[in-house]
Amino acid sequence: MKTLAHRAMASYIPAFILFVLTFVQSIVLVPVFLQYWGSEKYSVWLTLYAFITLMRTLDLGHQNYIGNEFSKLYHSDKRAASGLLGSSVRVALLLGVFELLVYVVICLCGYHKSAVGIDLQQYHVSDGIIAFLIMWLLTGSVGGLITRMLYPVGKYSVTNYFGLLIKVGELVAILVGVYLKLSINQLCIVVASTWFVYNAYTFIVIRRIMPDFFPWWKDGSWKAGFNNLKKSVVLTFNGFIEQFNTNGLILLVSHTAGLLVVPVFTTVRTVGNTFMQVSNLMLNPLAPELVRYYVKGEKEKIIATIEANWFITGLIINVPVILILPFLEFIYTWWTKGKLPFNPVLLYTILLSIAVVNSGKSFVTVLTSINELKSVLIITICRFILTYGFSILLLKYFGLSGLGVSMLAAEVVSSGYLPANFVYKLLGLKANILQNKMRLLSILQIILLGAVLFAQLVWPGLKVFIFAIGFITTISISLLQWKGLDADVRKRLISLVRKK
User: Can you tell me the distance from the alpha carbon of 19 to that of 144, in angstroms, rounded to the nearest whole number?
Assistant: First the structure.
């Protein structure tokens, strides 16, 4: 537990800085885009970037699968790990080519407007998409794979510093480009070039850290690479659907509600994503440790880690939501300079869905870290069907409010219910909520948060009273969670706070 605490802490510092920078980027760019580009041009950029992100996720599942397998092999059989890496690098390059070809075929067949959500000829953005995909072909597809080599050697913090670097580079590139009033096409090329330079730099650093594995393609074979690709199909599908549940919704909003509604959806979701990034900050460094616990059969430590995460995320996410609730509308209006309407139903349902996601994220991390692909596939398909099934029905009649309700309904099942049941079954434990005090407290805190958000929506004039009741009860549940933690876990958390 001590080594876990030290390794996690080494990762939390750069990860926290990365979170702050990501938050600043999200906050700063919205008013800048609205001021210098206007809502229509900003809408085109958001839709275009969502499509590009979707295209780049076609190989993220392969990267995650190989990263997990590499972590398993590194300490036991470095030669096998090198063969795995070499085989996968070959396939990664091929996947980059495939992504570029998919876009070319879409354009040649005349489906670009349906696929992207905008008329590429009207806004002259086709070259920008190609620039992004060529960059990904040459460096990004392999870069994501190579970076995951650092996980098993205790260099997870280095990947966070990499993240800091590209965030700063991308932020500067976008700010300068928007200030100079570059076209969308030109800005795409500038950002793609920034990513290309970043990936080249990471290659140099990783080669210095792990020289024994370079050249990365020296071992392995095409046959082994394709076999691993076949095994990673579930994670590939999962990764694509996960992105489709975020960036794909932007395309759906653009098609259904209109291009100008896109910034309203993305800005509201940015608020929710901020809290999600806090959860990722806490959990991502723990993924390698969860793999180690599972391999060693230390299921008690897995459960202890999950329970600690419930307490931490409840305290640093659910409680702050209550604290800023009375000021959300004012903050949003000031942030968007009053150019975008405030949608409380969308915001509140997204915030509640984030709380549900956080409650189940520990379980999902366990399943993905050990490549429990069948369970991950079921969760992914369920989330996709519920999100888009409800969205197509409700978006037409209730607008973005219906979309928020759809997202919440999907997460209740795919994050709140399924992952926990799968992990408990995997570990041979009972999933009965009434017999698990810590899980019950986590669920009660989410229900309480939902009640507070609903009350704020129905009785906005009682915001002070609602805030007081919500804050007191939420804090009380956090205290009960703290008392329910294992004594050793409490000591470790206290030591981490003191050192920090």
Answer: 19
